[in-house]
């Protein structure tokens, strides 16, 4: 008979590698957009597990898919395919520009695959000297050594020895820098159409068009990292659908599994052909359990009801944040799209985003930060309107607590 352990935050420091500094709060259950901790204190969830729990906690369709597939088949390896993977890949192909899908377990893995494929495509078609990857300052693409090197935040990639080479970073939304940098050596331009970790920064339409134009001119591939912006987050199934351009490779993860680890890289048949048998792989990628849940997520999210609902909820969030700001004057602007929004702290509160996050937790609200100066909101795509109202009331109390301190 197992003995129930008395699990506390202090045990994290005893048994976990110290690369995280988690909150003292330990959630134990969730339902919809509400979460309860060990002391049964309730929180409204405006964080969404960092844009992951797109249908909230314990959505019945996802729980049902997990239970049903859990009693059938969990894992095979890619020596064989499986029905849930085939079904999900077909849905992704039918709903996007893509013709081929590669499954992985996380956004970093999907981005690793995208970068390797872009390099292989260039080598096969143009030779080994066409190897430069252009990426952008403040970008985030994952924590593998390749993806963290392509990401535009040196603090995450420094200190681990020599980095992968032929990676050039330039300012996001800077057309002049882009024109000065792209060349015959460029094999790929990788970007988030809406930067997440970098501060919730929208891609300027003219800038995105120039990315596509220059990539076409120099035979480079456009890689969209939609790990955070994808799966309905912006009000389109994928953010590229709200722009004037189509990428050559797209990565998706986070919300694709609604909380269960799964990721995918999407591309065309021509580009995909350069990943021949044995070129790349993943033990767990495309496993039946993850794909069964991904199918359930896709069936719900890729509907007019949910996607149109994101746009309505965006306005409720903006109205709520603007109303709070009219009283307390903490934000210089609210930016982003859909339900990936950032409240940018003004000069008076520079560097204090974590203070606001901790105050929110004290007041029963889960939010995120995107750097030291931005409060980030990435709730469930179907968060009830009454939960938005209640969350905003708690956010106002948290902000008042900081402002009046």
Automatic annotation (TrEMBL):
Keywords: Amino-acid biosynthesis, Aminotransferase, Arginine biosynthesis, Cytoplasm, Pyridoxal phosphate, Transferase
Keyword Transmembrane: no
Cofactor binding note from Swiss-Prot or TrEMBL: Binds 1 pyridoxal phosphate per subunit.
Positions contributing to pyridoxal 5'-phosphate binding: 107-108, 140, 225-228, 283
Residues that coordinate or bind N(2)-acetyl-L-ornithine: 143, 282
A GO BP entry: L-arginine biosynthetic process
Catalytic reaction list: N(2)-acetyl-L-ornithine + 2-oxoglutarate = N-acetyl-L-glutamate 5-semialdehyde + L-glutamate
Enzyme Commission number, as recorded: 2.6.1.11
InterPro entries in alphabetical order: Ac/SucOrn_transaminase_bac, AcOrn/SuccOrn_fam, Aminotrans_3, Aminotrans_3_PPA_site, Class-III_PLP-dep_AT, PyrdxlP-dep_Trfase, PyrdxlP-dep_Trfase_major, PyrdxlP-dep_Trfase_small
UniProt cofactor(s): pyridoxal 5'-phosphate
Highest taxon in the source lineage: Bacteria
Record-linked CDD domains: OAT_like
Gene Ontology MF terms: identical protein binding; N2-acetyl-L-ornithine:2-oxoglutarate 5-aminotransferase activity; pyridoxal phosphate binding
Subunit and partners: Homodimer.
Miscellaneous comment as given in the Swiss-Prot or TrEMBL entry: May also have succinyldiaminopimelate aminotransferase activity, thus carrying out the corresponding step in lysine biosynthesis.
Family label: Belongs to the class-III pyridoxal-phosphate-dependent aminotransferase family. ArgD subfamily.
NCBIfam families: arg_catab_astC, argD, PRK01278.1, PRK05093.1, PRK12381.1
Identification of the protein by name: Acetylornithine aminotransferase
Provenance organism: Shewanella fodinae
């Amino acid at each position: 008979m197992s003995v129930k352990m008395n699990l506390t935050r202090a045990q994290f420091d005893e048994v976990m590698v110290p690369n995280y500094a988690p909150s003292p709060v330990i959630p134990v259950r969730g339902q919809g957009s509400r979460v309860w901790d060990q002391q049964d204190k309730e929180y409204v969830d405006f964080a969404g597990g960092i844009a992951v729990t797109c249908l909230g906690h314990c959505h019945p369709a996802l729980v049902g898919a997990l239970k049903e597939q859990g009693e059938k088949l969990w894992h095979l390896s890619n020596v064989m395919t499986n029905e849930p993977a085939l079904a999900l890949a077909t849905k992704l192909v039918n709903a996007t520009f893509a013709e081929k899908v590669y499954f992985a377990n996380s956004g970093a893995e999907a981005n690793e695959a995208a970068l390797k494929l872009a390099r292989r495509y260039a080598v096969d078609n143009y030779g080994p000297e066409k190897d430069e990857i252009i990426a952008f300052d403040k970008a985030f693409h994952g924590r593998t050594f390749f993806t963290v090197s392509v990401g535009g935040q040196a603090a995450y990639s420094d200190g681990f020895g020599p980095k992968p080479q032929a990676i050039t970073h330039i300012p996001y939304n800077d057309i002049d820098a882009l024109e000065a940098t792209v060349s015959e050596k460029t094999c790929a331009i990788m970007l988030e159409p809406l930067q997440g970790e970098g501060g919730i920064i929208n891609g300027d339409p003219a800038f995105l068009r120039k990315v596509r134009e220059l990539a076409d001119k120099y035979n480079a591939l456009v890689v969209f990292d939609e790990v955070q912006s994808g799966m309905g987050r912006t009000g389109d199934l994928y953010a590229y659908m709200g722009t004037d351009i189509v990428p050559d490779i797209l990565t998706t993860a986070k919300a694709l599994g609604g909380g269960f680890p799964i990721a995918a890289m999407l591309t065309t048949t021509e580009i995909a052909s350069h990943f021949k048998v044995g070129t790349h792989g993943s033990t767990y990628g495309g496993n039946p359990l993850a794909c069964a849940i991904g199918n359930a997520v896709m069936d719900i999210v890729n509907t007019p009801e949910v996607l149109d609902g994101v746009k309505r909820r965006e306005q409720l969030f903006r109205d709520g944040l603007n109303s709070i700001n009219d009283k307390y004057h903490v934000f210089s602007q609210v930016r982003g799209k859909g339900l990936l929004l950032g409240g940018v702290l003004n000069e008076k509160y520079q560097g204090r985003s974590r203070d606001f996050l901790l105050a929110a937790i004290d007041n029963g609200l889960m939010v995120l930060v995107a750097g030291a100066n931005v409060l980030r909101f990435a709730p469930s795509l179907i968060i009830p309107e009454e939960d938005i109202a209640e969350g905003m009331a708690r956010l106002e109390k948290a902000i008042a607590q900081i402002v009046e301190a």
